[in-house]
């Protein structure tokens, strides 16, 4: 069982770095190991956090602000939103948000595909989204990220690329901001009793290695291939999530 959790962490760490959606690998693995969905959600968030830090540090030279919105403001929005989402998770049942996940991932995949394959590329520094829209979208993603977290990578990639960032800059910025969101949530979750620390440790080890490997791949892989992979993965995740939600 621990080998399954280690493999899930490795896969999720790489997937989070390249495109997002790693929690949809770790959640089923943790539930199969005997945890409740809510406990698995909290455990996954805590365990994947070190991998996100590793990926963020490995790609930190590529992070960027969006238009007039500096990276510092994106950092603050992500930190505050992540904390609010973590508090919301501990005080409300996650069923409503869980049912929204397939629609959010579908929306993010469509926006990402449009932003990278259909729309005209904006001039450098001129994103398609105004500053107020980036603020609103990033704030909403941050709250959702602290609450559930599934699909935040797709949502941020969609928003950042639609705002004018290149795939590499958007990927690196997304990795750091995802870590910031989860840092706020993890700080709150650490006070949750009965966290299975052995599973957290095994999952974290796999996520750290996978996150580092994914960051190296993000720097060297062909940008068009990464974009196509993100869309393909988004379609697969969307189909799987709708099937899963329809079976409950």
Describe this structure in words.
This protein is an all-alpha fold. It has one domain. Helices cover 78% and strands 0% of the residues. Helix 4 runs parallel beside helix 8 and helix 6 packs across helix 8. The chain is globular. The two termini are 25 Å apart.
Short description:
This protein has 248 residues and is mostly helical. It has one domain (2-246). The protein has helices spanning 2-18, 23-32, 37-58, 71-91, 95-118, 131-147, 152-162, 167-189, 197-220, 223-246.
Which key terms come to mind for this protein?
mainly alpha; 248 residues; single chain
Order of helices and strands: HHHHHHHHHH
**What's the shape?**
globular
| Count of domains | 1
Question: Strand count, sense and closure of the main sheet?
Answer: none
Structural class: mainly alpha
Question: Topology of this structure?
Answer:
Layout: H1 2-18, H2 23-32, H3 37-58, H4 71-91, H5 95-118, H6 131-147, H7 152-162, H8 167-189, H9 197-220, H10 223-246
Helix pairs in contact: 1-2, 1-3, 1-9, 2-3, 3-8, 3-9, 4-6, 4-8, 5-7, 5-10, 6-7, 6-8, 7-8
């Amino acid at each position: 069982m621990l080998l399954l959790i280690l493999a899930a962490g490795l896969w999720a760490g790489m997937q989070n770095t390249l495109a997002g959606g790693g929690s949809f690998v770790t959640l089923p693995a943790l539930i199969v190991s005997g945890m409740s969905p809510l406990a698995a959600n909290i455990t996954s968030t805590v365990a994947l956090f070190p991998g996100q830090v590793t990926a963020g540090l490995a790609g930190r030279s590529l992070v960027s602000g969006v238009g007039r919105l500096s990276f510092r403001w994106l950092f603050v929005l992500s930190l505050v939103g992540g904390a609010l989402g973590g508090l919301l998770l501990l005080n409300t049942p996650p069923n409503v948000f869980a049912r929204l996940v397939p629609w959010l991932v579908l929306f993010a995949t469509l926006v990402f595909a449009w932003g990278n394959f259909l729309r005209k590329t904006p001039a450098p520094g001129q994103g398609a989204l105004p500053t107020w829209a980036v603020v609103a979208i990033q704030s909403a993603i941050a709250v959702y990220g602290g609450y559930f977290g599934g699909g935040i990578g797709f949502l941020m990639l969609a928003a950042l690329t639609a705002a004018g960032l290149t795939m590499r800059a958007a990927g690196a910025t997304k990795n750091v901001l995802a870590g910031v969101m989860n840092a706020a949530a993890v700080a709150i979750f650490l006070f949750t009793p009965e966290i299975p620390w052995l599973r957290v440790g095994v999952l974290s080890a796999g996520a750290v290695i996978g996150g580092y490997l994914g960051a190296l791949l993000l720097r060297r892989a062909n940008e068009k291939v990464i974009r196509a992979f993100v869309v393909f993965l988004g379609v697969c995740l969307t189909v799987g999530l709708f099937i899963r939600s329809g079976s409950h």
